[in-house]
Design brief:
Belongs to the FAD-binding monooxygenase family. By secondary structure, the chain is of the alpha/beta class. Among the domains are: 191 residues, FAD/NAD(P)-binding domain; 116 residues, 3-Layer(bba) Sandwich (FAD/NAD(P)-binding domain). It contains 17 helices and 21 strands. The strands form five sheets. Strands 1, 2, 3, 4, 5, 6, 7, 18 and 19 form a nine-stranded mixed sheet that branches. A five-stranded parallel sheet has the order 8-17-9-10-13. Helix 1 packs parallel to helix 15 and helix 15 runs parallel beside helix 17. It binds NADP nicotinamide-adenine-dinucleotide phosphate.
Length: 554
């Protein structure tokens, strides 16, 4: 059979393989590489034309990672020995180049089919395999796989805002989560631009488009509690000096709460006098990046009074950056008007965000009390009747995270039960890797993993290694299928909930709890015990012969 136009080494048509991996980001790449090394016949399908996961879709102006090198990378020496980044926080273009390098070194493409979206995956009770369709819906590629891995990331489904009459708007509309390839800030020079959303995507778009727009209006519902980013250029020579230590950095990722190379201060925050606390905050603030978020007292996320001090410090540092009083009130609310506790929504890193917002041609409108009522032909109308016009509207309204991407694929488990039914009241998982009734189906960097409290490679590395070991064990023990036990799943969902309830994250207003999407079950979507505790949970299951999973012999 002739290969399809977009195929790299893979033949179209029905095939029987051991593993189908969906998604070409960090998790997918690592699983393809490791499963293949372990002798499993493995293929990878990716909806986009290349590797890179989210960095293929979310290529909006300014898109850049918030986790510094070398944390944001694969730990394999064969990959990092011959790769140097050009800056501490690379942009999406450089991350794509990194994935090209990974592809070359690990020889991945020969087992991948790009431009191939998976539409359905049905467990076949008779064959104990997954029947999967993908690609062209009229003439789909069909494949039968023993194991089905969903490595689609936590942001595989866009969250369109619930603003009525989107079709009425005649201007140009973009969403940060599916930005047109090649549409650069330069193409929007001199335009009048509107922007909805102040998450990481909104902050980065503001910085990029605010420099080229004729005028810009930023609609703010919840201001971002940003932290300063310092993004120096990095030479190969500098990285060569430290490269021998990268192994240790990757080991350190497994020993810290968020998978970074620094961690919380776990001692009681009240041991410090107010003066000592101020000095402590000054120190971690001066380190820039996420240090003020992730190297602070752990108590910031457990004790409201401690959190209040962090918010007050953030406010003290940030308020002077905004010149105009009206803008400042919206962007940097004082402690008594805070929208939420500090750090319980991922803060975004900013370079010149407030400089852009200070510009006279940039307006800031609060849509908290005065929401956008409707789209108009030329812009939007607010609830108080005020109309705002623009030629281009960028929506940076985020994603139906963690579960949305899974539920838009027609996935059916034992007895034909749809995943949409199994997760109707909220997602259920064993260890954030599998769900009961769906044998031999696994996921990574999705619900119930450290996911959003961490970063991609830090989380996926642990999960992929565990899965590879478990399936190797299955092979050695002649296992036909392996599946999460319903009781273990129930216990793990309770664990996720209990861990979350102990923290201030549980009240967080946004996507961490599924509160950003109307009608979505509100639940803890991440493992909030930190990476070392998560690893311990995995190790305990493994030591007990993969407890929490039912293994059926062939
Ligand atoms: P997000 O954090 O969910 O932000 C969505 C924004 O849209 C929020 O400000 C939200 O306001 C606003 N919004 C939604 N509907 C609205 C409406 N109807 N009217 C007005 N405002 C509305 O999404 P994101 O910025 O795409 O980021 C998602 C996550 O992706 C990040 O937290 C991060 O983990 C990841 N990411 C990372 C990077 C990076 O590495 N630098 C870059 C981009 C994304 P409310 O808060 O009031 O709901």
């Amino acid at each position: 059979m002739a290969p399809t136009a977009t195929t790299n080494g893979h033949q179209a048509g029905q095939q029987e393989i051991d593993c189908l991996v969906v998604g070409g980001g960090f998790a997918g790449v690592q699983l393809l590489y490791t499963m293949r090394k372990q002798g499993f016949n493995t293929k990878l399908y990716e909806a986009m034309p290349g590797f890179g996961g989210i960095w293929r879709n979310a290529c909006y102006p300014g898109a850049r990672v918030d986790s510094e090198l070398p944390i944001y990378g694969l730990k394999f020496p064969e990959v990092y020995r011959n790769w140097s980044w050009s800056q501490r926080y690379p942009d999406y273009k450089e991350i794509r180049k990194y994935f090209d390098h990974v592809d070359k070194v690990l020889e991945l493409s020969k087992d991948c089919q790009f431009n191939t979206r998976v539409h359905s995956a049905h467990w076949n009770d008779e064959t104990s395999r997954w029947d999967i369709t993908a690609g062209d819906q009229q003439n789909p590629t069909k494949i039968s796989a023993k194991y089905f891995f969903l490595c689609i990331g936590f942001a595989a489904k866009i969250n369109w805002p619930d603003i009525p009459n989107r079709d009425r708007y005649k201007g140009t509309l973009y969403h940060s989560g599916f930005w047109p390839e090649g549409l650069e800030p330069e193409h929007l020079r001199g335009k009048s631009i509107g922007l909805v959303g102040t998450g990481a995507s909104g902050v980065q778009i503001t910085q990029a488009l605010g420099k080229v727009a004729k005028d810009m209006t930023v609609f703010v519902r919840t201001p971002n509690l940003t932290l300063p980013m310092e993004n120096p250029k990095m030479s190969k020579e500098t990285q060569d000096l430290f490269r021998d230590g990268w192994d240790a950095v990757y080991e350190k990722r497994n020993k810290t709460f968020a998978g970074f190379h620094y961690d919380f201060d776990y001692d009681d925050w009240t041991r410090h006098t107010p003066e000592q606390r101020e000095a402590f905050y000054e120190d971690i603030w001066s380190r820039k990046g996420f240090h003020f978020w992730l190297e602070t007292y752990a108590d910031v996320y457990f004790k409201k009074d401690c959190n209040d001090t962090a918010y007050a410090f953030w406010h003290k540092k940030t308020a002077p950056m905004v010149k105009d009083e009206k803008k400042r009130a919206i962007l940097v609310p004082p402690p008594d008007k805070a929208h939420h506790t500090f750090g319980t929504v991922r803060p975004s890193l900013q370079v010149d965000y407030y400089d852009i917002l200070n510009q006279d041609n940039v307006d800031v409108i609060s849509v908290k009390e005065n929401p956008i009522k409707t789209f108009t032909e030329t812009g939007v109308e607010l609830s108080d009747g005020k109309k705002v016009d623009f030629e281009v509207l960028a929506l940076a309204t985020g994603y139906d995270t963690h579960t949305g991407g899974f539920l838009q694929i027609d996935i059916r488990g034992k007895g034909g039960k749809p995943l949409t039914e199994h997760w109707k009241e909220g997602c259920k998982s064993q260890l954030g890797l599998a769900t009961s009734g769906f044998p031999n189906m696994f996921f990574a960097y999705g619900p119930h993993g450290p996911t959003a409290y961490s970063n991609g490679p830090s989380t996926t590395d642990i999960q992929c290694e565990f899965l590879a070991r478990m399936l190797n064990w299955s092979k050695e023990n002649n296992i036909k299928s392996i599946e999460a036990k319903p009781k273990a799943e129930q216990a793990f969902v309770k664990r996720i909930d209990d861990l979350s309830k102990a923290t201030l994250f549980h009240q967080s207003h946004g996507w961490y709890m599924g509160r950003n999407v109307k009608g979505k079950p509100v639940q803890a979507l991440n493992y909030s015990g930190g990476i070392p505790a998560y690893i311990k949970d995995l190790e305990e299951s493994e030591a007990a012969g993969y407890s929490g999973f039912d293994a059926v012999k062939a």
